[in-house]
Amino acid sequence: MTNHWIDLKNANVILVMGSNPAENHPVSMKWVMRAKENGAKLIVVDPRFSKTAKVADMYAPLRPGTDIAFLGGMIKYIIDNDQYYKDYVAYYTNASFLVNPEFKGPGELAGVFSGYDPKTRTYDKKTWSYQLDENGTPKKDFSLKDSHCVFQLLKKHYSRYTPERVVAITGTPKEKLLEIYKLYSSTGKPETAGTELYAMGWTQHTVGTQNIRAMTIIQLLLGNIGFAGGGINALRGESNVQGSTDNALLFQDLPGYMPTPIASLVDLNTYIDKNTPKTKEPKSVNWWGNRPKYITSYLKAIYGTKATKENDFGYAWLPKLDVGVNYSWLMLFDKMLSGGFEGFFAWGQNPACSGTNAGKVRKALAKLKWMVNLNLFDNETGSFWKGPGENPKDIETEVFLLPVASSVEKEGSITNSGRWAQWRYKAVEPIGQSKPDSDIMNELYFRVKRLYQKEGGKFLEPIVNLTWEYGEKGPDGKIKEIDVHKVAMEINGYYLEDVYDKKTEPPTLIGKKGDLVNNFTTLQADGTTSCGNWIYSGSYTQKDGKIINMMARRDKSDPTSLGLFSNWAWAWPVNRRILYNRASVDREGRPLKPSRPVIKWNPTKEDPKTKKPGVWEGDVPDGPAPPLSDEKGGKLPFIMKPDGVGLIYGPGLADGPFPEHYEPLECPVQVNPLYYSDQTKHYLTTHRMNPTIKLFFDAETKTGNPEDVYYSCDLRYPYVGTTYRVSEHWQTGVMTRHIPWQLEMQPQMFVEMSKELAAEKGIKNGDNVKVSSGRGQVMAKAIVTSRFKPYKIIGSTVHVVGLPWHFGWQYPEDGSAGDTANLLTPTVGDANTMIPETKAFMVNVEKA
C-alpha cells in the first residue's frame, strides 16, 4: 500500500475493484465505513454483487478479465472531460516526456506495440525509448501538446476505449459506467482525494500487472498519489504477506527488493553497475543509487567477518540465477513434473490445493523422492499420495511432517498491508512437539553445516561462512534456541566500526562500533556497516545507549488527526506512513490539499541537523531535500524513480508501456472485441490474449505438456468461472476446516450461479452439481442467486459462475467438503510476474 489502513478514512471516494474487503479484509472495511460516515462515496465494481457492494453508493458488474477495458475507458473520460490535475501531471509525472517518434501502439499495429517478435513472443523495446536532450535527460513539453509526448500518446492510445466499446467488452451497463467515471474523476480537484483497494481480483490475471498500472495512471492523472485519502492500496490476504515479500519471499529479490544476482554478474562491482539506476536528471533523488551501500551491508549481515573487501564481501557465495531462467511458482512445478527436483519443502503452504491447475501440482509431487511438509495440520499436500485417484503403492515420494507452532505460540513481528511492522508477544507455549519456524531452521542449519564440515562437498562456503549469532550456544556450538530479537537487530543493522560523516570538517561521528544503526541513511558501501534488510533499518535501534524495539511501540497519539499514529509500531521506510508524500505539496512545498496536509515546508523553522532555516513538518518526508522550486537543492517527489517522476508511460514492462485490453487465456469470445471495426465489420487483430505471456502448451503446434491444454470458445466449457474467498475460511482452509464452528458455517464446496443460468440448466438451489474444466472437475452444492447476472458481450449472452477455493479432500476426513476449485484453473501467468490466472477461465456446470 502507498498509504495504510487507517488512512482510508480520509478519502472522499473509494473505488473497490479487484477486492471484497467486507468479507476478506474486514479491518480495511472498518475504515471504509468511517470514510462513509464522513461523507465519502463508495464504488464497487465486481463480477459478483458482494457484501462490500451491498453497502456501496454505486455498484457495477463487469465480466471477469476485462478490468483494463473498464479502466481504460475511465482514462479516456478523465482526459476528454478535462478532469486531470494539470500541474501535477505536467511536473510530477512523465506525461511531458517526448518518446521516440518510431514508437507505435497496438491501435496502429493490429494489437501489438512496436518491436514485437512473434517467434519469441517478446518485444524489442528500442522504439519505446525517450528522446534525449544534449545533457542526456528526456526532452519535455510541459504544455503537453507535442504529438510525441507521453500525454498525447496516452490520449491517442485510449481514444479507442469509448463507452460503447467498453460496454461491449465488459458487459457493464453504460449508465452505471458513466456514473462511476464521473464520480471518481471528481477526485482530481483540490480538497478531494480518491483511493483504490485491490487484491487478487486484479493480480491473478495474464494482465495482472497492467491492471494495477492502469489504475496507477488514473491516480497520477487525478493527482491522488502522495495524499492522505489517496494512493494505490493492495489488500494483502494474510497479516504478514507484506513482510514476507519485503524479506525475499520471491525468487527474483534479495531482502529489501534488491535483485537476486544472475550468473553473468561475476563480481560485486558488475552486480552494482548492472543493478544501480543512473540518472542525469539533476532534480532526481534516484534513491536506488544507494544500492552499493545496501548490498554490501547485506553481505556483511549474512557473512559477518568472513566477508571482506578482499573477497568481494562474499558476493561469490550468494546463490545466482541462471541467465534467462524463471524460477517462479508455475515454473517450479512444471520442472518438478518433469523430474527436475529430488526434494521439496512445503513450508506453511498447501500447493496441492492453492496451486493453479492443482491436478498437475499433485502429479508433480509424485515425482519427488522426498518432501517435508511443515504446517499446523496435515493437509492435501502432505497426504497427496493417498488422495482421490491415487494408488499409494505407485508413489515413491517419502513424506515427513514437521509440526510448526502457530502465530500465537511464538514471538516476532508482522508487517501488514500498510507497511506497519508490529511486534507480537508469545501468548502460549507451542503444543506438543511443534516448534517455531526459526527453531526448525536452526536445527536444519546446524545439521547441514556439520555435514559439510565433516564430509566436505561442492560449494560449501555459502553454508559454513554464514553468521548465526541468534542466541546462547551449547557446548557443541549450536544455538540452543533462536532469540528473535537478535534476528530483528541483525535485520536493522550494526555499525561494525566507528562511522563518520566525512562531508563535515572535522568529520562527525555518525555511529559507534557495535551500536545498532540509526537507519539506512547511515549505511556504508565499504563494509563498516551491516544490515539484513535496508528498508527495515531503523526498526530496532538505539538512542543514548538505550536499545529500542520501534515495532513494539504502542503510543496512540495522533497530532495530525489524519490517522498517521506515528508512534504506534513502525512503518518502513524510516517510519514514513504515506509514500511519495512530497507529491502532496506544490513546487514551493505548500500542501496541495491544505485541509489534510501530509507534509509541508516551513522555510523559517531551523533544521536541528543542519542548523539552517527550512524543515519539513508532518509525516516523515520522502527525503530531507527542500521543495522543487529551490534552485540549489530542490528535488522531484518520486524519489525511487531515476527520473524523479511518476510513470504514466512504463517502458520497462514486458507487455507494453501502456495497459491494453487482452482477453484471458480462456474466454467466451473468439477474438479481441476491442479491435472490432464498425466500418469494415471485421476484427483488426489476431491477438486475442496478451501476446507476451508464457504458454505451457502451444495450441497451434499441439506441443507442450498435455496437462496445460487450454480451452477457449469450446462448447464443452461455455461458462466463465472465477474464484474467491469467504469470511468463514482462511486460504485453503487448513486451519479453519479444523475448527468445528467455522466448518459448520461453511461446510463444503459450492458454486454460485445466476437464476437465469440455473433455469437454463434445470438446477435448483441446493442441488448437487459437477463443475468441470479441461483440467478437472469438482462436486459442489448449487447456490442460485441474484448476485450474479448474465452479461451481454458483443451480442451474445455470457454466464459467470463463482467458486471458493478453501476446500480440499483431506479434511473433514469423510471428504464431505469436496475438493479445491484450483483443479479447474489453468497453468498460465502474468507476463511480468507469472502470478497465475485463476480469476477468469472456462467451465461447464451440470446437474450431478
Show the helix and strand layout.
Layout: E1 13-17, H1 21-24, H2 26-37, E2 41-45, H3 51-54, E3 58-60, H4 67-80, H5 86-92, E4 116-117, E5 122-123, H6 150-157, H7 163-170, H8 174-185, E6 194-198, H9 200-203, H10 208-222, E7 232-234, H11 241-246, E8 253-254, E9 258-259, H12 268-275, H13 291-303, H14 329-337, E10 343-347, H15 351-354, H16 358-365, E11 370-375, E12 398-403, E13 412-415, E14 420-424, H17 437-455, H18 461-464, H19 484-492, E15 494-495, E16 499-501, E17 508-511, E18 529-530, E19 540-543, E20 546-549, E21 570-571, E22 599-606, E23 613-618, E24 697-698, E25 703-704, E26 719-724, H20 740-745, E27 750-754, H21 755-761, E28 768-772, E29 777-785, E30 791-793, E31 796-798, E32 800-804, E33 841-847
Parallel strand pairs: 1-2, 1-6, 2-3, 6-7, 10-11, 11-12, 26-32, 27-29
Antiparallel strand pairs: 4-5, 8-9, 13-14, 14-21, 15-18, 16-17, 19-20, 22-23, 24-25, 26-33, 28-29, 28-33, 30-31
Helix pairs in contact: 4-7, 4-8, 4-10, 14-16
